[in-house]
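Below is how a single chain appears once it has passed through the pipeline. First comes the sequence as given, then the structure the pipeline wrote out for it. We keep one example in the README because the format questions we get most often are answered faster by looking than by reading.
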Amino acid sequence: MYNILIDYEDSLIGRTPYVDPSNFYGPNAGSANERLALLCIRFAIEKILKWTPDDAVKYFDSYIIRQMKLDKLVSYIDFPIEVEYGNPRYILSLLYPRKVRMTQRSMAESMIKTVLNSTEGKQFPREYFVGGIGFQRYCYCLKYLFDTSCPCDTLDDMYEYMDSPAGKAFLGRCRLKVPAEQYNINIHQAIRYITQDHPDSELTFAYHEFLQQWRKAKSQIANQNKD
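Resulting structure:
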């Protein structure tokens, strides 16, 4: 048995106040520390409580985390920015991914729903759309809008609407216009990403990229002629 599990059992019976931090590789969450924490949590669920994964989905909550002295172990789990610290459902998604699914797409959709439904002008978390994962989050948020709110029936409609003043205003109301500008997110690339399974995705993307560049060149020539 892992020493950490012995330590955990000792904490449950009061022999020690908590699992000794020396079992972990420093204080940081994630990586090997997260794996050790999840090992203990699984042990508590399956060996101490003798729950099945289905039982855990039903009964594992914040109360159980406190009662089973798992609080300090939870601090070694790296929670995504979309998920509240200590979220029991996210912990279960790591332990039993076939029972509890929390994908990047579902978390991004949950985030934009929270932002859109806020009555206090809630914004996306700082740096939520930074980097590769940020672009992916943006794409999933945009897809959610297309699926629920945008009047677009074809790929061409999607590009044309997002290039129009009405589409830009729509992105502004949904709080996606400023992040796109701030992090230099190409809306055409985002549409391409979320429609990649469509047989005409690449052709439609190339066509509308050409149209956009042609409009820019035409505008520059017109401005030069004015000067």
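The mean pLDDT is 91.

See the next section for the split statistics.
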